[in-house]
Automatic annotation (TrEMBL):
A family per Pfam: GFO_IDH_MocA
A GO molecular-function descriptor: oxidoreductase activity
Coiled-coil portions: none
Record carries keyword Oxidoreductase: yes
GFO/IDH/MocA-like oxidoreductase domain segment(s): 163-240
Lineage, highest ranks first: Bacteria, Bacillati, Actinomycetota, Actinomycetes, Kitasatosporales
Domain Gfo/Idh/MocA-like oxidoreductase N-terminal: 9-123
Protein name in UniProt: Predicted dehydrogenase
InterPro entries assigned to the protein according to its UniProt record, in alphabetical order: Gfo/Idh/MocA-like_OxRdtase_N, Gfo/Idh/MocA_oxidrdct_glycsds, GFO_IDH_MocA-like_dom, NAD(P)-bd_dom_sf
Keywords: Oxidoreductase
Amino acid sequence: MTRTAPEPVRVGLIGAGPWARDMHAPMLAAGPQTNLTAVWARRPEAAAELAAAHGAAAAAGIDELLDSCEAVAFAVPPAVQATLAVRAARAGKALLLDKPLGPDLPAAIAVAEAVAEAGVVSQMVLTKRYHPATRAFLDRARDLEVTGARSCYLHGAFLGGEMATGWRLTEGALLDLGPHLLDLLDTAVGPIASVRATGDPRRWVELVCAHTNGAVSQASLSGSVRLPRARTRVELFGAEEELVWDSAGAGHQESWPLLREEFAAAVRSGVPGPLDAARGLRLQELIAMAKRDLAG
């Protein structure tokens, strides 16, 4: 008996900036698991241009976008995402959420609670977690007894260009890059119990994490250093040979098929994966620990 493939998930996109243009829109429009139905953005002309490029409609407002889709993807600043994600969840829409979940911990809690109360599927766009090389690294890490770990996420995007605007320049690397490394360290080494921080997130911030299994890990974060390419690296150490993951040569586009496939499968089954809003909230809790150190 021939099985009929599930209908593509109809996704509306909120946002029309660089990340929406370079990642969300082409990924969602490529299918076959998803169909980009509509785009809404604060700038109508940007939404219309992006929608036209991918065969979608430009929504005149949030209500029109919600009426056109069964899931909503977000490519907007954290404060905007936190507000509109609550609204979309209450409307019964599945959510494809960017990191961080919100601009601060109370906002992230509000999103996670709205998702739980509405019973909708949610998934975080922690792009690196969907790359085959990252999956292979984490599979190997499960068999290791890690004593300590070092990691970094460094680039110069805050020095100029499309990403050197708004909340990224105000909040810096901790809120923008921190979720990626904290997620990887928490998964590869073991659950993080506490985070200490020093430095300036707008220049360079250093994190030290204590894990529940007794391991200690370190993370260096900066978006304001001149490098030929972004550098993301995790090194695990213990009684066995070191295990290293490096993002060199691992482009975002290689993550899109699995990200899209897993989101669509979660929406159709009604069962979210491990990278849901609750995971995003946990990462925001860890960031809040670090921010308390920096504020002191």
